[in-house]
């Protein structure tokens, strides 16, 4: 039996302690060619432009080397981040349309990539917002 993906998952299930965007939403660039001439990458299935944002997992039990990572977002327009928490650069978010795809790294370890269709601010209890 083959296992295929990506798998759909609710953000609150994958990140029960919450998630925060750090930095800004940027374009995913096409691979190859010179950096000046590369266009924006597009999703192979939907044709939508791809965006990327760095996020941090709020779970204190998460290993520090895997606490921050990038999420790719397929959306027609650049996603807008909510306002940051006062005095910090962190913007609590919920990833919408979240999927997880697993792969084997070049070091024969299991890796995964996260994709979303959008993001929204956390409003009150994140479990209700999701």
Automatic annotation (TrEMBL):
Protein name, UniProt field: Plasmid replication, integration and excision activator
Species assigned in the record: Microlunatus ginsengisoli
Biological classification of the source: Bacteria, Bacillati, Actinomycetota, Actinomycetes, Propionibacteriales
